[in-house]
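ESCALATION

Customer reports they have been waiting on this structure for their group meeting. Please prioritize. Original submission:
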Amino acid sequence: MPDRVGFAGLLPVWGHAVEERSLEPETDEPEAGETEVGKPEAGAREDETEPVAPLSLLLLNPMGSDGWGGVERWLMDVALGLRERGHHITSTGRPGSVWLQRCDDAGFPTVAVPLRADFHLGQARKLSRFMLEHGVDVVATKLHRGIRVAGFAAKLAGAPPVTAFMGLVETRPGLRYRLTYDLFLDGVVTLSERMRAEIVERGALDPSSVKAIPYGVRPEKYAPSETRRAEMRTTLGLPADAPMALAIGRLNDQKRFDLLLECFRDVRRAVPDAQLVIAGTGKLLPRLQDLRARLGLEQCAHLIGFRRDVAGLLSACDSLVMSSDIEGLPMVVLETMASARPVVATDVG
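Update from on-call: job pushed to the front of the queue and completed.
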């Protein structure tokens, strides 16, 4: 069993992976802390440029079968970047989940766990054996169930530290949550300094355990392409020149796709050939289909389900629409910016 590593041990690893996916173009100008020949300036910390020893990272995603959104896309991108740098990535999730299927497709070793309860002993033993088999140094997860499931199993596997990603302020008051944080959580990663400050302000976590690591995307993946635009429009069965608005996200209450459909009815009155494409799955699909029918939008508002080709969809659209009630820093907004498309959004985030 490898020695326990601190929460800080994960940060440079995630940071390197995010750095590779940043939106900043490469330049020939020396970075801060380097001279023009690439040597550290006087006074620069040498450990900032030292390579990180390979780690074994387990990603535990407690989302249901159709749980796939911006956090999952970011985690997958980071995982691929970490593997490129020589780190060992493993994954666990619910049987049949989109998350586990994508990890299988990426070639990561996986184990399916039903997540029937937070403290199910059989489930914890199965997961702890997987941790020991792969010498897991750090566990990364999300949501309170993920923290408790990962933390309980980690105690049986020699207690590798557990970190959680929080894209919003998710900490809660009460004894149950205080015990969750104190017993099972070593640190939190969030996506901006502002979000970090809001999480710390709640007072549930030690401020030193909350770190901000921004999202990043590979801009070359989203470079505008007229060929890809035309191909995707054909795939979707949409006219080549019709104005197209795109929305991407899980079909849940937070995203307010019901509001989007109602607004799109008004848009169609002003722009009769406008098209709306909503990509995503979730529990609200039947309700949204009924609303679409009541609004008379069945021929122009398209619910296309889960899609892997986000870059292609962004090439095909003329704008991205975000109708959410609450957001942190949505991954899809960064992807849209990299695709040189405008974003029309509610005043959130």
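Sent to customer with the following note: The chain has two domains: 7-212, 219-345.
Escalation resolved.
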